[in-house]
Write a structure and sequence with these properties.
heterodimer; A: mainly beta; six-stranded mixed beta sheet; five-stranded antiparallel beta sheet; 11 strands; 0% helix; B: seven-stranded mixed beta sheet
Chain lengths: 109, 116
């Protein structure tokens, strides 16, 4: 079956760095997405990886290892507004998005 | 670019009534739109995939006669929750996929449905 695993909840301190991991097993692979979702709102796009390596975009970076079925989202210089759920999603062989359950990130001052 | 709107943003209705939710791609044409449902503290659950001009493909466990989907144009898809019951109360989100891109989905702001 298809499976996406990510931690349920993480806590970090304002100004620090946090890494949210995602492992996946899917039928085919056409890229991995990270989305941010604040409570009561729709997801917003953060990053897309289809090749191995690190993609950096401001304070956020995303890494992919296809051989390991593994990705992480790295958030630097954490701000209180970064408190949200972070969703990992994999595009399978049919270009269907398979979603993880999301990681709730709590930022403490 | 790539903006998706949903209407209404919130709706409260009585049990047994039907509710229609519209999803529009404002500045692009979307051959495929997706309808998701999200219960509190849970992840997105895909309900159905809607292709313009054809019947929607429903995920297992989603009643197609209860959740009617129409994708009449490249910029509009509608989801009608028929004979809504309290257990249908949820956050309904649509997304649209660009014609030229198979991968990225652009999300609407969501519709909060509460059935009394």
């Amino acid at each position: 079956g298809q499976n996406i695993d990510q931690p349920t909840e993480m806590t970090a301190t304002e100004g620090a760095i946090v890494q949210i991991n995602c492992t996946y097993q899917t039928s085919g692979f056409n890229g991995l997405f990270w989305y941010q979702q604040h409570a009561g709102e729709a997801p917003t796009f953060l990053s897309y990886n289809v090749l191995d390596g690190l993609e950096e975009k401001g304070r956020f970076s995303s890494f992919l290892s296809r051989s390991k079925g593994y990705s992480y989202l790295l958030l630097k210089e954490l701000q209180m507004k970064d408190s949200a759920s972070y969703l990992c999603a994999v595009s399978d062989s049919n270009y269907q998005l398979i979603w993880g359950a999301g990681t709730k990130l709590i930022i403490k001052p | 670019g790539a903006v998706v709107s949903q209407h209404p943003s919130r709706v409260i209705c009585k049990s047994g009534t039907s509710v229609k939710i519209e999803c529009r791609s404002l500045d692009f044409q979307a051959t495929t739109m997706f309808w998701y449902r999200q219960f509190p503290k849970q992840s997105l659950m895909l309900m159905a995939t809607s292709n313009e001009g054809s019947k929607a493909t429903y995920e297992q466990g989603v009643e197609k006669d209860k959740f009617l989907i129409n994708h009449a144009s490249l910029t509009l898809s509608t989801l009608t929750v028929t004979s809504a019951h309290p257990e249908d109360s949820s956050f309904y989100i649509c997304s649209a996929r660009l014609m030229a891109s198979y991968n990225e989905q652009f999300f609407g702001p969501g519709t909060r449905l509460t059935v009394l």
